[in-house]
Amino acid sequence: MNQVNTGIYDESQIKVLEGLEAVRKRPGMYIGSTSLSGLHHLVYEVVDNSIDEAMAGRCDRIDIKILKDNTVEVRDNGVGIPVGPHPKMKKSTLEVVMTVLHAGGKFGGEGYKVSGGLHGLGVSVVNALSEYFKAEVHRNGGIYVQEYQRGIPVTEVERIGDTKISGTVQRFRPDPEIFDTLEFKFLTLSSRFRELAFLNKGLNITFTDERTEEPRQVEYCYQGGIVSFVEKLNENKGLVNKDVIYVEGTDGSNELEVAIQFNDGYTENILSFANNIKTTEGGMHESGFKSALTRTVNKFSRTHDLLKDKDPDIIGDDIREGLTAVLSVRLTDPQFEGQTKTKLGNSEMKGFVESTIGEILYTYLCEHPTESKKIVEKSLRAARAREAAKKARELTRRKSSLEISALPGKLSDCSVKDAALSELYLVEGDSAAGSAKMGRDRRFQAILPIGGKIINVEKARLDRILNHAEIRTMITAIGAGIDEDFSLDKTRYHKIIIMADADVDGSHIRTLILTFFFRYMQPLIEAGYIYIAQPPLYLIKKGRAEHYAYSDEERDNILEEIGRHGVRIQRYKGLGEMDPDQLWETTMNPDNRILLKVTMDDAIEADKYFTILMGSSVEPRKNFIVENAKKIKELDL
């Protein structure tokens, strides 16, 4: 993508709209929440300022650090925030930017043609929500510093030395009075920084975490930009078109680039961005892309007589089966829905994206007949499978809450109707399920037996998946639908707990179920509704005393504490070996049980490992096993 005109960036470009008063009183209005996501949002806001410098062509390196005391440092080699007197506020422009809400270089003028900041909230909000903040600017040969506490300047803007470089260094420590947690997650942050490096071709981003004994560091720089991004996403997958299709264009004020590649899988993966902000709910740019893809493939198919009279119509869903695409647009006045910026609302972007991509994509299809024919044939197979899946899908759609008979007969439901209080145990085997049903608290715990290993959804189309009895039963019990029909609000349980034996078969069953949730009910994972039960491995008896151990280490600690003489140790090979009271006490009682919450800090890495471990290609799986075999200390066979 071509760089924009660097323009002018000086004191006159900083426009002031209003003050900072409400931020500390209502932080959720500005950063979404005061939980972990809000904590990470602080980092993103500061980094986004440096990214804006990169988009303006004034920065090619950003270094981010988390120091031992949870202070975050973000350093770039841009031109630095202006420090001279602001023409309206009559004080240093640096102080204005850091302490006044809606003050920034993004409200007219030529400071930034495009930026990720919607309201100019960014750094002033971070300052207000930090117990300590220090801004250091290298600009015009001088080093300028100002410090703040909870948004209030505690020093004047001072020139403390000379420099031959330019850029900004910002250090902040989130306020414990505001946030529920101060523990940044390395994987969550590094995933976002890698994403930003993909989206900004040639930008070097390093991320260092100094909180551990051995500091962790990652460095990202992709000369291929979003083409490299798609190649990463399709790593270890069978490809339909070997080379990534790349389209870029501009209408003078807006720019776009898209990278497209089809794999032989069955899931659609479109990542869309506007000014580097991930638009998880899509928007006008994504609608334009989908329309262009559908219209262009259909036009090519008809023009080249690739569709017969007996063939079903190809719709967008069919064409996008196995599609991996990254769409990135840049525009001067982005209109997002809300401060969380998850959906782009600029209506003009739909036509711009659709016309630009449609023309170039059609030319590509005509110039690559072999790959184009494969894409059409794959779409046709998907269309036939869609028709076959239509009836199966109807069986999984949840009936109204009055139609109790819609729930599967195998399900032993709970009596409470509040989903936030309800738990669903997916239990391996009828024997264990029988114990779980007798041992559970019927008020809030539901039991659904899973008869062995379910279908591997990584290797099957939706029609086969929906015809699998165990899958259908799970979908109906959960009640939220599947795939594009999925609605998190309809979920009948806010805790869905996978309870399988602690052996190889149990691990396989857990992995198969998790693969299904990841591919077709991913919002359940994102919402934190999926858990894995941790039954004990050992029952240790000495006299009348009983102790449960959940690991070999815990077993050894118990033996050291009670002594080994007269001890009987039972190794549980399966859940069915425990009677109902034992299963309740060790694995189901909220006061005693251990549950592992399934999280997804890095969706790209999660996708990669599900593809390797559960996909059709044998070679990547073999390589993974060989590379990681030495890390396995003990196999439970």
The CATH architecture of the largest domain can be named as 2-Layer Sandwich
Cα(first) to Cα(last) distance is: 54 Å
Percentage of residues in strands: 15-25%
User: Can you identify the CATH class of the largest domain?
Assistant: Alpha Beta
CATH fold call of the largest domain: Heat Shock Protein 90
**Residue share in helix:** 25-40%
Label the structural class. alpha+beta
Would you tell me the overall average pLDDT? Answer: 86
Q: How are the SSEs ordered, and which strands pair?
A:
Elements: E1 15-16, H1 28-31, H2 36-55, E2 61-66, E3 72-76, H3 93-99, E4 103-104, H4 122-128, E5 130-139, E6 142-149, E7 152-153, E8 158-162, E9 167-174, H5 186-199, E10 204-209, E11 216-220, H6 226-233, E12 245-250, E13 255-262, E14 269-274, E15 277-278, H7 284-303, H8 316-319, E16 323-330, H9 348-367, H10 369-396, E17 423-428, H11 430-439, E18 445-450, H12 462-466, H13 469-478, E19 495-499, H14 504-520, H15 522-526, E20 530-533, E21 538-542, E22 545-549, H16 552-562, E23 567-571, H17 580-588, E24 595-597, H18 603-614, H19 618-628
Parallel strand pairs: 2-10, 14-16, 17-18, 17-19, 19-20
Antiparallel strand pairs: 1-4, 2-3, 3-9, 5-6, 5-9, 6-7, 6-8, 10-11, 12-13, 13-16, 14-15, 20-24, 21-22, 21-23
Helix pairs in contact: 2-4, 2-5, 7-9, 11-17
Describe this structure as you would to a colleague.
- The structure is a single chain.
- The radius of gyration is 28 Å and the shape is globular.
- By secondary structure, it is an alpha+beta fold.
- Helix 7 (284-303) packs parallel to helix 9 (348-367) and helix 11 packs across helix 17.
